Amino acid sequence: MNGWDLLALGLWGALLVKYWLTGQLAVLIHPNYFPLTVSAGLLLLGLTGWQGWQQWRERGRLRQLVPESGGLLPRPWSRFLLMSTAMVGLLVTPQPFNSQVAIARGDLLTLTRPMPQRFRLRQRPEDRSLVDWVRLLQVYPEPDAYQGQKARVEGFVVRPPGSPARQFLLARFVVTCCAADAYPVGLPVEVPSAGKTYPADTWLRVEGRMTTGHIQGQRRLVLRAETLTPIPRPANPYLY
Fold first, then answer.
1. What secondary structure, in 3-state letters, does 145-188 show?
2. DSSP secondary structure code for residue 29 in this structure
3. Which has fewest Cβ within 10 Å: 32, 45, 136, 151?
4. Predicted TM-score (pTM) of this structure
5. Cα atoms found within 13 Å of the Cα of residue 7, Cβ hemisphere only
6. E strand residue ranges, the chain
7. Bridge partners, residue 222, by sequence
8. pLDDT in tens, 179-220
9. Phi-psi region of 7 (alpha: psi -120 to 50; beta: other; left: phi over 0)
């Protein structure tokens, strides 16, 4: 292992630890994988330090040359790809998905990918998160069953093309493993009158009561907003 190999390992270790210390891991992977990722970063940094110290102690001695072969790419190309990727990660701050990505990934009113067979209603309606409501609709899809129930959910505004001015979708991305498999879910929100408008990607806490309405020609559950409060984007913007 030469100095360039050590540099590549050290950069990747620094990148993983940087994501951990800055809280950016939450934008990239499910929290279940945080310990594994942080351990890998610390291990790479430790290996870099230990190998660097060993090579510093053995400086000046004759060393046996090891042929660089056996990989898919020539060794210099592999090092370049590893180092350049790590450098990009260190310089660029990862951003969570936004409303444009949500629209591009399909119908937000499509039900969640996991298919629960039962759903115990131990929560008060106002304590359900946005994904709780979506999963509840997956098991009990009749919107009239929730007529008049209180709701208090948080998410970002999505305005699909052609949607009425008084309606938008309140959306969150759901992650099962990492950002690559994230998919959006949303609830239609109806504001009572044409007042202040909230642009796409605005994070809101919406309080109101459930009612029914027609969205894209289908009867759906709609949250009729009574209070809309702008909130900062959460440090962890995804649901699970």
1. HHCCCEEEEEEEEECCCCCCCCEEEEEEEECCCEHHHCEEEEEE
2. B
3. 32
4. 0.78
5. 12
6. 150-158, 167-174, 183-190, 203-215, 218-230, 238-239
7. 211
8. 888 889 999 999 877 667 889 999 999 999 999 988 777 888
9. alpha
Kindly state the tokens that stand for 109: 């009113």
CB 220 within 8 A of CB 185: no
What's the pLDDT tens digit per position in 76-105?
Answer: 888 889 899 999 999 999 988 888 888 887
Of 14, 21, 4, 22, the residue nearest 40 (C-alpha): 14
Number of alpha carbons in the 13 Å side-chain half-sphere of residue 131: 16
- Bridge-based pairing of strands 218-230 and 238-239 is unpaired
Amino acid (one-letter) located at 38:
V
Three-state DSSP class for 233? coil
Q: Give the burial class of 5: count Cβ atoms within 10 A of its Cβ; 0-12 exposed, 13-18 middle, 19 or more buried.
A: middle
- Cα–Cα distance between 224 and 17 in angstroms, integer? 43
Phi, psi of 6 (to 5 degrees): -60, -40
Question: Regarding predicted confidence, which is higher, 105 or 153?
Answer: 153
Amino acid identity, position 228? L
Q: How far is CA 148 from CA 120, 143, 211, in A?
A: 20, 11, 6
| Closest listed residue to residue 224, CA positions, set 150, 137, 125, 122 | 150
Q: Helix, strand or coil for residue 69?
A: coil
Assign residue 201 a region (left: φ > 0; alpha: ψ between -120 and 50; beta: otherwise). Answer: left
